[in-house]
Design a protein that fits this description.
Blueprint lengths: L51 E4 L6 E3 L9 E3 L2 E2 L14 E3 L5 E3 L8 E5 L11 E21 L3 E4 L4 E3 L6 E3 L8 E4 L10 H15 E4 L15 E6 L3 H12 L6 E4 L9 E6 L2 H12 L5 H15 E3 L3 E5 L2 H13 L4 E4 L6 E5 L3 H11 L4 H5 L9 E21 L3 E4 L2 E4 L16 H5 E4 L3 H10 L8 E3 L2
Parallel strand pairs: 1-24, 3-25
Antiparallel strand pairs: 2-3, 4-24, 5-6, 7-8, 8-9, 8-21, 10-11, 12-21, 13-14, 14-16, 15-16, 17-18, 18-20, 19-20, 22-23
Length: 471
């Protein structure tokens, strides 16, 4: 409840225009007809489409829910559709966390992309967990905006967009927030370029972790009696090998992936990248032996070594028999803001373990960007361990281009903050309409809503409950 001393929220601007400029295909329809525009038609300002009100033949009036985040379990909704369009919107430049744990602008998100989401409602007796969130719809519009400023981020959003509070675990609209309220956040990592130094570091790290190198500068052909020279990386997973082939080609070394026979029967098929050309081995030798001091090289080195020797389960750790090598990886990580604890074991493989919560592990993947999908996916279904982020200000931001998305979980992370997206648009597809402009211009009205409600309340089977009226 807002105290008398809390500053009043900024006044709301009238919602104008349409939330969507087009009608994307209904996902349940096999065929979609796209009309070809006449010549010059796209140069004119499109007319504002009329709203059509259609009769809803539903024989029920109450909609029920079991959400702990809503203060009622039944509501009266006399219509379906929403003329003012999407209101769960964010500016297109807002960074959102993708399933590969890389932050990218919301404006680049497309249908079918996988984001990092979480349980919209917790299972009774348990906390929300991280889940893959498939993007099911994307809509652009222009809306009056509010600038939400927290201690750690700033994001342009709309008045009714919902955010997850820290203490109460409840959803609150932007317009309900006041300075001092605390939201839930993951640290945002700005994406660094994959440059030459990162590629060289990745090749060196992966090779040191899981490679075999037999070459001396100036070495001559084995056909002249010299030992066979080669460089080989053999793995069960192909993703690091695909990446290393791409990087090697940029340095002028071409190779291919082939099956690898380790001499015994492995539990899974193995694959290798192997280079035997002396000219190519000279290039590889420089990549493996010339250490670079840039942050990009260190990011790539840690990523490659983690793909070879890393594990992400109950903790994130990297193992290796040679403690000196572990200390090198640990030093690179520390220079980039990560702390690993050395767990030495005499005569056996030692390990360095990342210090911190799940949020720190996500930051690790966002920073270093290793290739292996399965090591990232171990974070899904884990308990969220987010950081508190207090609100500092809510400011008017004028009318802006904004983006609304629908995800399979109903949730995602925007500018680091745990947030919600609109759930209503895709329901129009069940009625045979598009979730785009149809949602705003084809409104289904329950004309007999008063009689349906009267009949429901008069039924002997009706149990008294709190009933909300839909807005």
């Amino acid at each position: 409840m807002q105290s008398p001393d809390d500053p009043a929220p900024p006044p709301r601007e009238a919602i104008k225009g349409r939330g969507s400029a087009e009608n994307p295909p209904n996902r349940f329809e096999r065929l979609h007809y796209l009309e070809e525009p006449e010549a010059g038609e796209d140069e004119e300002e499109p007319a504002r489409p009329r709203t059509l009100y259609l009769r809803d033949p539903s024989r029920t009036i109450l909609a029920t829910n079991e959400s702990p985040d809503v203060g009622f379990d039944a509501s009266v909704n006399p219509y379906r559709g929403c003329e003012h369009g999407c209101v769960y919107c964010l500016a297109p430049e807002t960074p959102v966390l993708h399933g590969d744990l890389v932050w990218r602008p919301l404006g680049e998100v497309g249908e079918g992309d996988v984001l990092v989401g979480f349980d919209e409602h917790p299972t009774p007796g348990r906390t929300r967990r991280l889940r893959p969130a498939v993007v099911e719809g994307v809509w652009w519009s222009r809306k009056p905006g509010l600038r939400l400023v927290t201690n750690r981020c700033e994001v342009l959003t709309t008045a009714e967009h919902r955010w997850l509070q820290w203490r109460s675990f409840r959803w609150s609209r932007t317009e309900q927030l006041t300075p001092g309220r605390v939201l839930r956040r993951l640290p945002v990592v700005s994406r660094n370029p994959v440059d030459e130094d990162y590629r060289a570091g990745y090749i060196a790290g992966l090779s040191l972790g899981d490679g075999t190198f037999r070459y001396e500068p100036g070495q001559r052909s084995d056909k002249l009696g010299f030992p066979q020279a080669y460089w080989r990386i053999a793995l069960i997973d192909r993703e690091p090998l695909d990446r290393i082939l791409e990087y090697l080609e940029i340095f002028g070394v071409r190779g291919e992936i082939r099956p690898f026979d380790p001499g015994h029967r492995p539990p899974h098929p193995m694959w290798k990248v192997e280079i035997r050309s002396l000219a190519k081995l000279e290039v590889v030798n420089k990549l493996l032996t010339v250490e670079r001091t840039s942050p990009g090289y260190r990011r790539g080195f840690v990523a490659g070594f983690f793909d070879a020797e890393g594990h992400n389960g109950s903790s994130l750790r990297i193992s290796q028999v040679d403690i000196g090598t572990l200390e090198r990886v640990r030093g690179y990580a520390r220079s980039l803001g990560f702390e690993f604890r050395l767990e030495a074991r005499a005569g056996r493989a030692s390990a360095i373990r990342l210090i911190g919560s799940i949020a720190e592990r996500i930051r690790f993947f966002s920073t270093f960007e290793p290739a292996l999908t399965r090591k990232r996916q171990a974070l899904f279904a884990t308990t969220r361990s987010l950081l508190p982020d207090p609100v500092e200000a809510i400011e008017r931001a004028g009318t802006r281009d904004v983006v609304d998305i629908q995800t399979s979980t109903g949730t995602f992370f925007a500018a680091g903050l745990a947030t919600h997206n609109c759930y209503a648009r895709p329901t129009h597809e069940y009625l045979g309409f598009s979730a785009g402009l149809d949602f705003e211009t084809r409104i289904l009205v329950k004309e007999d809503a008063p009689e349906l409600l009267r009949r429901t309340l008069a039924s002997p089977r009706f149990e008294p409950r709190v009933i909300a009226l839909s807005g």
